Fold each of these.
Amino acid sequence: MTQSPRNGTIAGLIIAAVFLAACGSVSWTETSTLSSLPTTAASDGTSPSNSTADVTTTTTTTTTTTTAPQPTNILVIGDFGDGGGNERAVAAAMEDYASMTPIAALVTTGDNLYTDDVAAAWEEPFGWVVAMGIPVYAAWGKHDLESSSRREAVADALDPPGRWYEAQLGEATLIVLDANQVEDPDQLAWLESVLSEPRNGPLIVSFHQPALSCASHGSTGAAISTWAPLFEAHGVDLVLNGHDHDYERFELNGVTYVVTGGGGRTLYEIGTCPSGTLQPLVGDDTHHHFVGLHITADGITVEALAPDGEVIDEFSLPLHP
Ligand SMILES: [Fe+2]
Protein backbone atom coordinates (compact mmCIF):
# COMPACT_ATOMS: atom_id res chain seq x y z
CA MET A 1 0.00 0.00 0.00
CA THR A 2 1.26 3.41 -0.91
CA GLN A 3 0.98 6.08 1.74
CA SER A 4 0.29 9.49 0.31
CA PRO A 5 2.56 12.32 1.34
CA ARG A 6 -0.43 14.06 2.89
CA ASN A 7 -1.26 11.07 5.06
CA GLY A 8 2.36 10.87 6.02
CA THR A 9 2.31 14.51 7.08
CA ILE A 10 -0.76 13.96 9.22
CA ALA A 11 0.78 10.93 10.87
CA GLY A 12 3.87 12.95 11.62
CA LEU A 13 1.80 15.76 13.04
CA ILE A 14 -0.11 13.38 15.31
CA ILE A 15 3.11 11.89 16.64
CA ALA A 16 4.52 15.38 17.21
CA ALA A 17 1.29 16.47 18.89
CA VAL A 18 1.27 13.49 21.24
CA PHE A 19 4.89 14.11 22.12
CA LEU A 20 4.36 17.79 22.74
CA ALA A 21 1.13 17.19 24.65
CA ALA A 22 3.15 15.20 27.14
CA CYS A 23 5.20 18.34 27.62
CA GLY A 24 2.07 20.37 28.36
CA SER A 25 2.00 22.41 25.13
CA VAL A 26 1.08 21.63 21.56
CA SER A 27 1.90 23.92 18.67
CA TRP A 28 2.19 23.12 15.05
CA THR A 29 1.97 24.72 11.62
CA GLU A 30 0.38 22.89 8.73
CA THR A 31 0.98 24.11 5.18
CA SER A 32 -0.79 22.52 2.24
CA THR A 33 -0.69 23.37 -1.47
CA LEU A 34 -3.84 22.70 -3.49
CA SER A 35 -3.42 23.00 -7.27
CA SER A 36 -5.87 24.56 -9.73
CA LEU A 37 -8.69 25.26 -7.36
CA PRO A 38 -12.00 25.94 -9.06
CA THR A 39 -12.44 29.63 -9.33
CA THR A 40 -15.31 31.38 -7.66
CA ALA A 41 -16.30 34.98 -7.64
CA ALA A 42 -15.44 36.97 -4.62
CA SER A 43 -18.46 37.85 -2.59
CA ASP A 44 -17.99 41.55 -3.40
CA GLY A 45 -18.37 40.81 -7.13
CA THR A 46 -14.77 41.52 -8.08
CA SER A 47 -12.79 39.02 -10.08
CA PRO A 48 -10.81 36.47 -8.17
CA SER A 49 -7.19 37.49 -8.10
CA ASN A 50 -5.65 34.11 -8.79
CA SER A 51 -8.17 32.16 -10.73
CA THR A 52 -5.68 29.75 -12.26
CA ALA A 53 -2.68 29.82 -9.95
CA ASP A 54 -1.96 27.33 -7.25
CA VAL A 55 -3.36 28.43 -3.92
CA THR A 56 -1.30 27.97 -0.81
CA THR A 57 -3.15 27.91 2.50
CA THR A 58 -1.40 28.04 5.79
CA THR A 59 -3.11 27.02 8.99
CA THR A 60 -1.39 27.52 12.28
CA THR A 61 -2.92 25.73 15.23
CA THR A 62 -1.66 26.26 18.72
CA THR A 63 -3.11 24.43 21.67
CA THR A 64 -1.66 24.98 25.11
CA THR A 65 -2.63 22.77 27.99
CA THR A 66 -1.91 24.23 31.39
CA THR A 67 -1.43 21.97 34.36
CA ALA A 68 -2.08 23.45 37.80
CA PRO A 69 1.16 23.53 39.81
CA GLN A 70 1.28 20.60 42.17
CA PRO A 71 1.52 21.50 45.87
CA THR A 72 4.44 20.42 48.01
CA ASN A 73 2.98 17.99 50.55
CA ILE A 74 4.48 17.78 54.03
CA LEU A 75 3.60 15.50 56.93
CA VAL A 76 3.93 16.75 60.52
CA ILE A 77 3.91 14.78 63.77
CA GLY A 78 4.88 15.53 67.34
CA ASP A 79 5.30 13.72 70.67
CA PHE A 80 5.22 10.25 69.22
CA GLY A 81 8.29 8.05 69.66
CA ASP A 82 7.40 5.63 72.44
CA GLY A 83 6.87 2.48 70.36
CA GLY A 84 3.28 2.13 71.61
CA GLY A 85 0.08 1.27 69.80
CA ASN A 86 -1.06 4.86 69.35
CA GLU A 87 2.19 5.83 67.66
CA ARG A 88 1.93 2.80 65.41
CA ALA A 89 -1.65 3.64 64.45
CA VAL A 90 -0.73 7.21 63.54
CA ALA A 91 2.39 6.06 61.68
CA ALA A 92 0.35 3.50 59.71
CA ALA A 93 -2.19 6.16 58.75
CA MET A 94 0.63 8.45 57.63
CA GLU A 95 2.11 5.64 55.55
CA ASP A 96 -1.26 5.10 53.86
CA TYR A 97 -1.46 8.82 53.20
CA ALA A 98 2.07 8.85 51.77
CA SER A 99 1.24 5.91 49.51
CA MET A 100 -1.43 8.05 47.82
CA THR A 101 0.15 11.51 48.00
CA PRO A 102 3.77 12.30 47.15
CA ILE A 103 5.40 13.57 50.35
CA ALA A 104 8.33 15.98 50.17
CA ALA A 105 9.30 15.92 53.86
CA LEU A 106 8.39 14.81 57.36
CA VAL A 107 8.53 17.61 59.93
CA THR A 108 8.42 16.85 63.64
CA THR A 109 7.59 19.11 66.56
CA GLY A 110 9.82 17.19 68.95
CA ASP A 111 9.71 14.44 71.54
CA ASN A 112 10.76 12.16 68.75
CA LEU A 113 11.94 9.49 71.17
CA TYR A 114 10.72 8.70 74.68
CA THR A 115 12.97 5.66 74.78
CA ASP A 116 16.41 4.65 73.59
CA ASP A 117 14.82 1.70 71.78
CA VAL A 118 15.13 3.22 68.34
CA ALA A 119 13.95 0.09 66.58
CA ALA A 120 10.59 0.06 68.40
CA ALA A 121 10.02 3.80 68.48
CA TRP A 122 11.28 4.84 65.05
CA GLU A 123 12.58 2.18 62.69
CA GLU A 124 9.57 -0.13 62.86
CA PRO A 125 6.70 2.37 62.78
CA PHE A 126 8.45 4.81 60.46
CA GLY A 127 10.63 2.56 58.32
CA TRP A 128 8.53 3.63 55.32
CA VAL A 129 9.90 7.18 55.66
CA VAL A 130 13.41 5.99 54.89
CA ALA A 131 12.16 3.48 52.31
CA MET A 132 10.34 6.22 50.43
CA GLY A 133 13.36 8.52 50.65
CA ILE A 134 11.45 11.21 52.57
CA PRO A 135 13.75 13.72 54.31
CA VAL A 136 13.07 14.36 58.01
CA TYR A 137 13.29 17.78 59.67
CA ALA A 138 13.00 17.16 63.39
CA ALA A 139 12.74 19.70 66.19
CA TRP A 140 14.38 18.84 69.49
CA GLY A 141 11.90 18.05 72.23
CA LYS A 142 12.40 17.89 75.97
CA HIS A 143 12.56 14.09 76.02
CA ASP A 144 15.03 14.07 73.14
CA LEU A 145 17.52 15.77 75.44
CA GLU A 146 16.90 14.02 78.73
CA SER A 147 20.07 11.90 78.56
CA SER A 148 23.19 11.69 76.45
CA SER A 149 22.10 8.32 75.12
CA ARG A 150 18.72 9.76 74.04
CA ARG A 151 20.40 12.68 72.39
CA GLU A 152 22.63 10.33 70.42
CA ALA A 153 19.67 8.11 69.53
CA VAL A 154 17.73 11.08 68.11
CA ALA A 155 20.79 12.31 66.24
CA ASP A 156 21.40 8.85 64.75
CA ALA A 157 17.78 8.08 63.89
CA LEU A 158 16.38 11.41 62.70
CA ASP A 159 19.61 13.21 61.93
CA PRO A 160 18.52 16.83 62.49
CA PRO A 161 21.16 19.08 60.92
CA GLY A 162 21.49 21.17 64.08
CA ARG A 163 19.67 22.46 67.13
CA TRP A 164 18.28 25.19 64.90
CA TYR A 165 18.34 25.23 61.11
CA GLU A 166 16.38 26.04 58.00
CA ALA A 167 15.22 23.94 55.06
CA GLN A 168 13.42 24.61 51.80
CA LEU A 169 10.07 22.84 51.37
CA GLY A 170 9.06 23.57 47.81
CA GLU A 171 7.92 27.18 47.77
CA ALA A 172 8.11 27.44 51.58
CA THR A 173 10.97 28.02 53.96
CA LEU A 174 11.01 25.96 57.15
CA ILE A 175 12.81 27.37 60.17
CA VAL A 176 13.37 24.88 62.98
CA LEU A 177 14.13 26.35 66.39
CA ASP A 178 15.14 24.88 69.73
CA ALA A 179 12.60 26.07 72.30
CA ASN A 180 14.56 24.34 75.07
CA GLN A 181 16.78 27.42 74.90
CA VAL A 182 14.62 30.25 73.58
CA GLU A 183 16.89 32.97 74.90
CA ASP A 184 20.15 31.55 73.60
CA PRO A 185 21.75 34.67 72.05
CA ASP A 186 23.33 32.75 69.16
CA GLN A 187 20.00 31.23 68.23
CA LEU A 188 18.24 34.59 68.46
CA ALA A 189 20.87 36.28 66.28
CA TRP A 190 20.59 33.47 63.73
CA LEU A 191 16.79 33.74 63.72
CA GLU A 192 16.92 37.50 63.17
CA SER A 193 19.39 37.01 60.36
CA VAL A 194 17.49 34.25 58.59
CA LEU A 195 14.16 36.09 58.88
CA SER A 196 15.73 39.20 57.37
CA GLU A 197 16.58 37.44 54.12
CA PRO A 198 14.25 38.33 51.24
CA ARG A 199 11.81 35.53 50.40
CA ASN A 200 8.78 34.98 48.24
CA GLY A 201 7.10 31.82 49.51
CA PRO A 202 5.38 30.88 52.76
CA LEU A 203 7.35 30.90 56.02
CA ILE A 204 6.86 28.04 58.47
CA VAL A 205 8.50 27.79 61.88
CA SER A 206 8.66 24.64 64.00
CA PHE A 207 9.74 24.14 67.60
CA HIS A 208 8.71 21.99 70.55
CA GLN A 209 7.45 23.95 73.55
CA PRO A 210 4.32 25.77 72.37
CA ALA A 211 4.20 29.53 72.06
CA LEU A 212 0.49 29.25 72.85
CA SER A 213 -1.37 26.43 74.58
CA CYS A 214 -4.21 25.92 77.05
CA ALA A 215 -3.23 22.37 78.02
CA SER A 216 -1.09 21.26 80.94
CA HIS A 217 2.28 22.70 79.85
CA GLY A 218 0.65 25.93 78.68
CA SER A 219 2.14 28.80 76.74
CA THR A 220 5.87 29.46 76.64
CA GLY A 221 6.28 33.04 77.78
CA ALA A 222 9.80 33.43 76.43
CA ALA A 223 8.72 32.32 72.95
CA ILE A 224 5.89 34.87 72.98
CA SER A 225 8.05 37.71 74.24
CA THR A 226 11.22 36.93 72.27
CA TRP A 227 10.24 35.16 69.04
CA ALA A 228 6.62 36.11 68.34
CA PRO A 229 7.39 39.78 67.56
CA LEU A 230 9.95 38.62 64.99
CA PHE A 231 7.43 36.22 63.46
CA GLU A 232 4.94 39.07 63.15
CA ALA A 233 7.46 41.54 61.76
CA HIS A 234 8.76 39.15 59.11
CA GLY A 235 5.49 37.62 57.93
CA VAL A 236 5.73 34.11 59.34
CA ASP A 237 2.63 32.25 58.18
CA LEU A 238 2.50 29.16 60.36
CA VAL A 239 4.14 28.08 63.63
CA LEU A 240 4.09 24.35 64.48
CA ASN A 241 4.58 23.24 68.08
CA GLY A 242 4.28 20.11 70.23
CA HIS A 243 4.88 19.37 73.94
CA ASP A 244 1.20 19.49 74.89
CA HIS A 245 -0.26 16.21 73.66
CA ASP A 246 -3.29 17.52 71.82
CA TYR A 247 -4.30 19.65 68.85
CA GLU A 248 -4.83 23.41 69.22
CA ARG A 249 -4.97 26.24 66.70
CA PHE A 250 -4.51 29.91 67.59
CA GLU A 251 -4.11 33.13 65.67
CA LEU A 252 -2.09 35.95 67.17
CA ASN A 253 -1.34 39.19 65.31
CA GLY A 254 -1.63 37.56 61.90
CA VAL A 255 0.42 34.46 62.70
CA THR A 256 -1.25 31.04 63.00
CA TYR A 257 0.07 28.79 65.76
CA VAL A 258 -0.74 25.07 65.76
CA VAL A 259 0.00 22.68 68.61
CA THR A 260 0.32 19.19 67.12
CA GLY A 261 1.53 16.99 69.95
CA GLY A 262 -0.84 14.07 69.54
CA GLY A 263 1.44 11.74 67.60
CA GLY A 264 1.21 8.80 69.97
CA ARG A 265 2.01 9.66 73.57
CA THR A 266 -0.85 9.78 76.10
CA LEU A 267 -3.13 12.72 75.32
CA TYR A 268 -3.45 15.77 77.56
CA GLU A 269 -6.73 17.50 78.35
CA ILE A 270 -7.15 21.04 77.06
CA GLY A 271 -8.11 22.98 80.15
CA THR A 272 -9.51 26.41 80.70
CA CYS A 273 -7.18 29.01 79.28
CA PRO A 274 -5.88 31.40 81.92
CA SER A 275 -8.01 34.52 82.07
CA GLY A 276 -6.89 37.21 79.70
CA THR A 277 -5.03 34.76 77.45
CA LEU A 278 -5.83 33.76 73.93
CA GLN A 279 -8.43 31.02 73.40
CA PRO A 280 -7.80 28.40 70.70
CA LEU A 281 -9.88 28.71 67.55
CA VAL A 282 -9.92 24.92 67.39
CA GLY A 283 -8.97 22.39 70.04
CA ASP A 284 -9.05 18.59 70.20
CA ASP A 285 -7.79 16.45 73.05
CA THR A 286 -9.49 13.17 72.22
CA HIS A 287 -7.70 12.06 69.04
CA HIS A 288 -4.16 11.11 68.25
CA HIS A 289 -3.38 12.68 64.94
CA PHE A 290 -0.94 13.94 62.35
CA VAL A 291 -0.99 17.06 60.18
CA GLY A 292 -0.70 17.42 56.42
CA LEU A 293 0.52 20.65 54.80
CA HIS A 294 0.00 21.44 51.13
CA ILE A 295 2.22 24.31 50.05
CA THR A 296 2.04 26.43 46.90
CA ALA A 297 3.41 29.84 46.01
CA ASP A 298 0.06 31.28 47.12
CA GLY A 299 -0.09 29.82 50.61
CA ILE A 300 -0.65 26.73 52.70
CA THR A 301 -3.62 24.47 53.28
CA VAL A 302 -3.55 22.48 56.50
CA GLU A 303 -5.42 19.38 57.63
CA ALA A 304 -5.20 17.51 60.92
CA LEU A 305 -6.27 13.89 60.64
CA ALA A 306 -6.95 11.11 63.12
CA PRO A 307 -5.71 7.60 62.22
CA ASP A 308 -9.21 6.61 61.06
CA GLY A 309 -9.26 9.55 58.66
CA GLU A 310 -11.50 11.80 60.75
CA VAL A 311 -10.72 15.42 60.01
CA ILE A 312 -9.92 17.25 63.25
CA ASP A 313 -9.19 20.57 61.58
CA GLU A 314 -8.84 21.95 58.08
CA PHE A 315 -7.95 25.50 57.01
CA SER A 316 -6.09 27.58 54.46
CA LEU A 317 -3.54 30.33 54.96
CA PRO A 318 -3.14 32.69 52.01
CA LEU A 319 0.38 34.03 51.63
CA HIS A 320 1.08 37.14 53.65
CA PRO A 321 1.07 40.24 51.40
FE1 LIG B 1 5.81 15.12 74.84
Amino acid sequence: MPAKRMQANVPQVPPALDADEAARLAYANDRDLSAHHFQEGEHPIVRIEHLNKAFDDNVVLRDVNLTVWPGEIVVVLGPSGSGKSTMLRCINLLETPTAGHILVNDFEVTGASTADVNKHREKLGMVFQSFNLFPHLTALENVTIGQVKVLKKDKAAAEAEARLQLEAVGLADRADYYPSQLSGGQQQRVAIARAVAMHPDVLLFDEPTSALDPELVRGVLDVMRDLAKNGDMTMIVVTHEMGFARDVADRVVFMEDGVVVEQGLPERVFDHPANERTAAFIGNIQ
Ligand SMILES: Nc1ncnc2c1ncn2[C@@H]1O[C@H](COP(=O)(O)OP(=O)(O)OP(=O)(O)O)[C@@H](O)[C@H]1O
Ligand SMILES: [Mg+2]
Protein backbone atom coordinates (compact mmCIF):
# COMPACT_ATOMS: atom_id res chain seq x y z
CA MET A 1 0.00 0.00 0.00
CA PRO A 2 1.55 3.35 -1.00
CA ALA A 3 0.52 5.12 2.22
CA LYS A 4 2.23 2.47 4.32
CA ARG A 5 5.34 2.49 2.17
CA MET A 6 5.68 6.26 2.41
CA GLN A 7 5.19 6.08 6.16
CA ALA A 8 8.10 3.65 6.37
CA ASN A 9 10.30 6.23 4.61
CA VAL A 10 9.71 9.00 7.13
CA PRO A 11 12.89 9.41 9.18
CA GLN A 12 12.51 9.56 12.93
CA VAL A 13 13.80 12.86 14.27
CA PRO A 14 13.96 14.21 17.82
CA PRO A 15 11.52 16.92 18.94
CA ALA A 16 12.49 20.56 18.32
CA LEU A 17 14.97 21.91 20.84
CA ASP A 18 13.99 24.21 23.65
CA ALA A 19 14.49 27.82 22.47
CA ASP A 20 17.23 28.82 24.94
CA GLU A 21 19.07 25.56 24.49
CA ALA A 22 18.84 25.90 20.69
CA ALA A 23 20.18 29.46 20.87
CA ARG A 24 23.14 28.36 22.99
CA LEU A 25 24.00 25.48 20.67
CA ALA A 26 23.57 27.59 17.55
CA TYR A 27 25.83 30.27 18.96
CA ALA A 28 28.52 27.70 19.77
CA ASN A 29 28.19 26.28 16.27
CA ASP A 30 27.93 29.44 14.23
CA ARG A 31 30.14 32.03 15.83
CA ASP A 32 33.20 30.98 13.81
CA LEU A 33 31.20 30.35 10.66
CA SER A 34 29.61 33.73 10.19
CA ALA A 35 30.55 37.40 10.11
CA HIS A 36 27.25 38.13 11.86
CA HIS A 37 27.70 40.41 14.88
CA PHE A 38 26.44 38.18 17.64
CA GLN A 39 24.63 39.79 20.55
CA GLU A 40 24.64 38.33 24.01
CA GLY A 41 21.63 36.06 24.51
CA GLU A 42 20.38 36.52 20.95
CA HIS A 43 18.22 33.80 19.38
CA PRO A 44 18.33 32.70 15.74
CA ILE A 45 15.50 34.04 13.59
CA VAL A 46 15.25 30.81 11.57
CA ARG A 47 16.03 27.35 12.89
CA ILE A 48 16.01 24.33 10.66
CA GLU A 49 16.37 21.10 12.62
CA HIS A 50 16.67 17.67 11.01
CA LEU A 51 14.81 18.78 7.88
CA ASN A 52 14.06 15.90 5.54
CA LYS A 53 12.12 16.10 2.31
CA ALA A 54 11.30 13.36 -0.14
CA PHE A 55 9.15 13.45 -3.26
CA ASP A 56 7.84 9.87 -3.24
CA ASP A 57 11.01 7.77 -3.32
CA ASN A 58 13.28 10.66 -4.28
CA VAL A 59 14.99 11.87 -1.11
CA VAL A 60 15.89 15.51 -1.74
CA LEU A 61 16.86 16.85 1.70
CA ARG A 62 18.59 14.69 4.30
CA ASP A 63 18.84 15.89 7.85
CA VAL A 64 19.50 19.54 7.03
CA ASN A 65 20.34 21.66 10.08
CA LEU A 66 20.81 25.38 9.71
CA THR A 67 20.34 28.44 11.86
CA VAL A 68 20.08 31.97 10.55
CA TRP A 69 20.54 35.02 12.78
CA PRO A 70 18.63 38.29 12.70
CA GLY A 71 20.20 40.50 10.05
CA GLU A 72 22.44 37.76 8.75
CA ILE A 73 23.05 37.34 5.02
CA VAL A 74 23.39 33.67 4.12
CA VAL A 75 24.29 32.61 0.59
CA VAL A 76 23.46 29.03 -0.39
CA LEU A 77 25.46 27.39 -3.16
CA GLY A 78 25.38 23.98 -4.73
CA PRO A 79 24.99 22.06 -7.96
CA SER A 80 21.69 21.73 -9.78
CA GLY A 81 19.38 19.31 -8.01
CA SER A 82 21.16 19.57 -4.66
CA GLY A 83 17.96 20.71 -2.94
CA LYS A 84 18.54 24.47 -2.60
CA SER A 85 15.13 25.53 -3.90
CA THR A 86 13.42 22.77 -1.97
CA MET A 87 15.01 24.00 1.24
CA LEU A 88 13.82 27.58 0.60
CA ARG A 89 10.38 26.31 -0.34
CA CYS A 90 10.22 24.29 2.88
CA ILE A 91 11.10 27.38 4.92
CA ASN A 92 8.00 29.20 3.70
CA LEU A 93 6.03 25.97 3.54
CA LEU A 94 5.48 26.03 -0.20
CA GLU A 95 6.63 22.43 0.29
CA THR A 96 5.68 20.34 3.29
CA PRO A 97 8.71 18.79 4.97
CA THR A 98 8.66 15.01 5.29
CA ALA A 99 10.25 15.23 8.74
CA GLY A 100 12.02 17.78 10.88
CA HIS A 101 11.32 21.21 12.27
CA ILE A 102 11.31 24.75 10.98
CA LEU A 103 11.04 27.51 13.55
CA VAL A 104 10.85 31.22 12.94
CA ASN A 105 11.36 33.44 15.97
CA ASP A 106 11.18 30.26 18.06
CA PHE A 107 7.70 29.44 16.75
CA GLU A 108 7.45 26.05 15.10
CA VAL A 109 5.70 26.37 11.75
CA THR A 110 5.99 22.74 10.75
CA GLY A 111 2.69 21.16 11.74
CA ALA A 112 1.11 24.55 12.54
CA SER A 113 -2.55 25.32 11.77
CA THR A 114 -3.49 26.84 8.41
CA ALA A 115 -4.05 30.22 10.07
CA ASP A 116 -0.60 30.09 11.65
CA VAL A 117 0.95 29.03 8.36
CA ASN A 118 -0.63 32.03 6.62
CA LYS A 119 0.67 34.34 9.35
CA HIS A 120 4.08 32.70 8.95
CA ARG A 121 4.10 33.31 5.19
CA GLU A 122 3.44 37.02 5.75
CA LYS A 123 6.70 37.15 7.68
CA LEU A 124 8.72 35.68 4.83
CA GLY A 125 9.31 37.37 1.50
CA MET A 126 10.32 35.35 -1.52
CA VAL A 127 11.94 36.48 -4.74
CA PHE A 128 11.86 33.90 -7.53
CA GLN A 129 14.04 33.36 -10.55
CA SER A 130 11.05 34.08 -12.81
CA PHE A 131 9.85 37.30 -11.06
CA ASN A 132 6.21 36.08 -10.81
CA LEU A 133 4.69 39.56 -11.20
CA PHE A 134 0.99 39.89 -12.00
CA PRO A 135 1.02 40.71 -15.73
CA HIS A 136 -2.25 42.65 -15.66
CA LEU A 137 -1.09 45.00 -12.88
CA THR A 138 1.32 47.93 -13.12
CA ALA A 139 4.57 47.98 -11.15
CA LEU A 140 2.89 50.17 -8.53
CA GLU A 141 -0.14 47.87 -8.31
CA ASN A 142 2.10 44.81 -8.04
CA VAL A 143 3.87 46.35 -5.03
CA THR A 144 0.61 47.59 -3.49
CA ILE A 145 -1.69 44.60 -3.77
CA GLY A 146 -0.17 42.33 -1.11
CA GLN A 147 -0.07 45.13 1.42
CA VAL A 148 -3.79 45.78 0.91
CA LYS A 149 -4.99 42.18 0.58
CA VAL A 150 -2.73 40.46 3.09
CA LEU A 151 -1.65 43.17 5.53
CA LYS A 152 -5.03 44.99 5.25
CA LYS A 153 -3.33 48.36 4.86
CA ASP A 154 -5.40 51.18 3.42
CA LYS A 155 -4.76 51.90 -0.23
CA ALA A 156 -3.13 55.31 0.21
CA ALA A 157 -0.64 54.05 2.80
CA ALA A 158 0.14 50.98 0.68
CA GLU A 159 0.72 53.14 -2.40
CA ALA A 160 2.98 55.49 -0.48
CA GLU A 161 5.02 52.48 0.71
CA ALA A 162 5.07 51.07 -2.83
CA ARG A 163 6.40 54.34 -4.26
CA LEU A 164 9.08 54.42 -1.60
CA GLN A 165 10.18 50.88 -2.39
CA LEU A 166 10.07 51.44 -6.16
CA GLU A 167 12.28 54.45 -5.64
CA ALA A 168 14.69 52.37 -3.56
CA VAL A 169 15.13 49.94 -6.47
CA GLY A 170 15.56 52.83 -8.95
CA LEU A 171 12.16 52.52 -10.60
CA ALA A 172 10.25 55.56 -9.36
CA ASP A 173 9.68 56.58 -12.98
CA ARG A 174 8.34 53.15 -13.98
CA ALA A 175 5.51 52.93 -11.45
CA ASP A 176 2.79 52.95 -14.10
CA TYR A 177 4.44 50.46 -16.45
CA TYR A 178 3.14 46.91 -16.87
CA PRO A 179 5.58 44.01 -16.52
CA SER A 180 5.59 43.45 -20.30
CA GLN A 181 6.88 47.02 -20.70
CA LEU A 182 9.82 46.41 -18.36
CA SER A 183 13.12 44.60 -18.87
CA GLY A 184 13.75 41.38 -16.95
CA GLY A 185 16.06 43.25 -14.59
CA GLN A 186 13.44 45.92 -13.98
CA GLN A 187 10.77 43.27 -13.39
CA GLN A 188 12.99 41.58 -10.85
CA ARG A 189 13.60 44.89 -9.09
CA VAL A 190 9.80 45.36 -8.90
CA ALA A 191 9.56 41.86 -7.41
CA ILE A 192 12.16 42.82 -4.79
CA ALA A 193 10.29 46.07 -4.02
CA ARG A 194 7.10 44.03 -3.65
CA ALA A 195 8.74 41.65 -1.18
CA VAL A 196 10.37 44.43 0.86
CA ALA A 197 7.13 46.46 1.00
CA MET A 198 5.63 43.68 3.11
CA HIS A 199 8.37 44.25 5.72
CA PRO A 200 9.11 40.57 6.14
CA ASP A 201 11.33 39.17 8.89
CA VAL A 202 13.30 37.18 6.34
CA LEU A 203 13.76 37.56 2.60
CA LEU A 204 14.36 34.40 0.58
CA PHE A 205 15.90 34.71 -2.89
CA ASP A 206 15.96 31.77 -5.28
CA GLU A 207 18.51 32.48 -8.04
CA PRO A 208 17.12 35.97 -8.60
CA THR A 209 19.51 36.80 -11.43
CA SER A 210 19.86 33.53 -13.30
CA ALA A 211 17.04 34.23 -15.76
CA LEU A 212 18.49 37.63 -16.68
CA ASP A 213 20.62 38.72 -19.61
CA PRO A 214 24.14 39.37 -18.31
CA GLU A 215 23.92 43.15 -18.69
CA LEU A 216 20.87 43.24 -16.40
CA VAL A 217 22.36 41.18 -13.58
CA ARG A 218 24.34 43.95 -12.01
CA GLY A 219 21.36 46.27 -11.41
CA VAL A 220 19.55 43.54 -9.49
CA LEU A 221 22.64 42.58 -7.50
CA ASP A 222 23.20 46.26 -6.63
CA VAL A 223 19.67 46.46 -5.24
CA MET A 224 20.25 43.29 -3.20
CA ARG A 225 23.60 44.58 -1.99
CA ASP A 226 21.96 47.83 -0.82
CA LEU A 227 19.30 45.86 1.01
CA ALA A 228 21.88 43.67 2.68
CA LYS A 229 24.20 46.47 3.71
CA ASN A 230 21.86 49.33 4.54
CA GLY A 231 19.33 47.68 6.74
CA ASP A 232 18.67 44.95 9.20
CA MET A 233 17.04 42.57 6.74
CA THR A 234 17.77 38.87 7.14
CA MET A 235 18.40 37.28 3.75
CA ILE A 236 18.85 33.71 2.54
CA VAL A 237 20.06 33.88 -1.04
CA VAL A 238 20.51 30.99 -3.44
CA THR A 239 22.83 32.27 -6.15
CA HIS A 240 25.85 31.37 -8.23
CA GLU A 241 27.09 34.97 -8.14
CA MET A 242 30.42 34.49 -6.39
CA GLY A 243 31.34 38.19 -6.38
CA PHE A 244 28.10 39.00 -4.62
CA ALA A 245 28.61 36.17 -2.13
CA ARG A 246 32.16 37.26 -1.32
CA ASP A 247 31.17 40.86 -0.93
CA VAL A 248 27.86 40.55 0.87
CA ALA A 249 27.47 37.18 2.59
CA ASP A 250 28.10 36.76 6.30
CA ARG A 251 28.11 33.04 5.68
CA VAL A 252 28.21 30.70 2.70
CA VAL A 253 26.49 27.32 2.84
CA PHE A 254 27.40 24.63 0.31
CA MET A 255 24.82 21.92 -0.37
CA GLU A 256 25.13 18.76 -2.38
CA ASP A 257 22.77 15.87 -2.77
CA GLY A 258 20.38 17.16 -0.12
CA VAL A 259 23.06 17.63 2.52
CA VAL A 260 24.78 20.72 3.90
CA VAL A 261 28.34 19.71 3.07
CA GLU A 262 30.05 22.70 4.61
CA GLN A 263 29.48 26.28 5.65
CA GLY A 264 31.59 29.20 6.78
CA LEU A 265 32.88 32.68 6.10
CA PRO A 266 32.92 33.38 2.35
CA GLU A 267 36.72 33.83 2.16
CA ARG A 268 37.25 30.55 3.99
CA VAL A 269 34.81 28.53 1.89
CA PHE A 270 35.94 30.03 -1.43
CA ASP A 271 39.68 30.14 -0.84
CA HIS A 272 40.14 27.18 1.49
CA PRO A 273 37.22 24.80 1.07
CA ALA A 274 37.42 22.00 3.61
CA ASN A 275 35.55 19.52 1.49
CA GLU A 276 36.74 18.29 -1.89
CA ARG A 277 33.23 18.46 -3.36
CA THR A 278 33.00 22.13 -2.39
CA ALA A 279 36.42 22.71 -3.94
CA ALA A 280 35.39 21.02 -7.18
CA PHE A 281 32.16 23.02 -7.40
CA ILE A 282 33.83 26.34 -6.70
CA GLY A 283 36.63 25.54 -9.12
CA ASN A 284 34.04 24.98 -11.82
CA ILE A 285 32.08 28.18 -11.42
CA GLN A 286 34.88 30.66 -10.68
N1 LIG B 1 7.67 19.31 -6.90
C1 LIG B 1 8.57 18.33 -7.07
N2 LIG B 1 8.18 17.07 -7.32
C2 LIG B 1 9.10 16.09 -7.46
N3 LIG B 1 10.43 16.25 -7.39
C3 LIG B 1 10.87 17.49 -7.15
C4 LIG B 1 9.98 18.60 -6.97
N4 LIG B 1 10.72 19.71 -6.73
C5 LIG B 1 12.01 19.31 -6.76
N5 LIG B 1 12.10 17.99 -7.00
C6 LIG B 1 13.35 17.22 -7.07
O1 LIG B 1 14.13 17.56 -5.96
C7 LIG B 1 15.51 17.61 -6.28
C8 LIG B 1 16.09 18.91 -5.82
O2 LIG B 1 15.51 19.96 -6.56
P1 LIG B 1 15.74 21.47 -6.22
O3 LIG B 1 14.90 22.24 -7.19
O4 LIG B 1 15.54 21.72 -4.80
O5 LIG B 1 17.29 21.63 -6.57
P2 LIG B 1 18.16 22.94 -6.72
O6 LIG B 1 19.37 22.74 -5.90
O7 LIG B 1 17.32 24.14 -6.47
O8 LIG B 1 18.59 22.88 -8.26
P3 LIG B 1 18.77 24.07 -9.35
O9 LIG B 1 20.14 24.65 -9.10
O10 LIG B 1 18.70 23.37 -10.66
O11 LIG B 1 17.66 25.07 -9.16
C9 LIG B 1 15.59 17.34 -7.77
O12 LIG B 1 15.93 15.99 -7.93
C10 LIG B 1 14.20 17.61 -8.26
O13 LIG B 1 13.90 16.83 -9.37
MG1 LIG C 1 16.69 25.72 -7.62
